[in-house]
Amino acid sequence: MSSGRDAGSVQSFWPRSSPWLTGGAWLLVAGFTAAQWQQHGPGGLLRAAPWALGAGYLAWLVFWRPRVQVTPDAVVVVNPFRTVRVPFAALVDVSTQFALTLVTPHLSIRAWAAPGPGRHKALMSGPDAVENLPTNAYDARKAVRIGDLRGSASGTAGELVRERWQRLVETEALELGVADTTPVDTHWDRTAQAVLAACVVLGVVAQLV
Q: Which UniProt keywords are given for this protein, alphabetically ordered (predicted)?
């Protein structure tokens, strides 16, 4: 995982695996395209090109684009096709059961970039993975959920969110009791959807000519 922690500025989280997964997917796409060219010549390349472009773009959307950004007054969750800005005033809970999930009175937003850890990660974690976490990461028994383990994607991103949230509460910089009326901004990436749809249409057309 990668993150920035400059107090009072934008803090960002994204998986360290993003470049590797994106690059691996692009290599597979390039190999498929080269094979079509070698076997079928220029015609095969033209028929494969729309599918290759679509697959490469989808890999970027799924592996590279997702991230979590913590600004001074909100959390921005960037998923493959949707970006959601959640003001801290709208938050009622931060869950990490299956992935980092921001809970508001009207909506729960799961972060694609911050999935919860598997059993292997939980078994291999040492005492330092549960020490000195934000106060709101512990339950009433002072236990830490698996998804909050330091070093996991959900735990690292959750720690960024909880630290900023806790600081706002402690400094009385956060207006309380307004979660139900605080708007959460959702933006669907229509351009990405249109690009993928166009690649599919062009791919089908290319197979027919």
A: Membrane, Transmembrane, Transmembrane helix
- Are 57 and 66 a contacting pair, CB within 8 Å? no
Cβ atoms of 160 and 6 within 8 Å: the answer is: no
Q: Where are the beta strands (DSSP E) in the chain?
A: 2-3, 11-14, 67-70, 74-78, 82-87, 93-95, 99-103, 108-115, 185-188
- The encoded tokens of residue 204 equal 């089908």
Domain ranges of the chain: 11-65+191-208, 68-123+140-173
Residue 76, classified by CB atoms within 10 Å of its CB into exposed (0-12), middle (13-18) or buried (19+), is middle
- Tell me, what amino acid is at 139? D
Separation CA 137–CA 134 (nearest Å): 6
Q: How far apart are CA 63 and CA 88, in angstroms?
A: 27
| Whether the Cβ atoms of residue 49 and residue 206 lie closer than 8 Å to each other | yes
For the entire predicted model, the pTM comes to 0.81
CA–CA gap between residue 208 and residue 190 (Å, rounded):
27
Secondary structure (3-state) at 65: coil
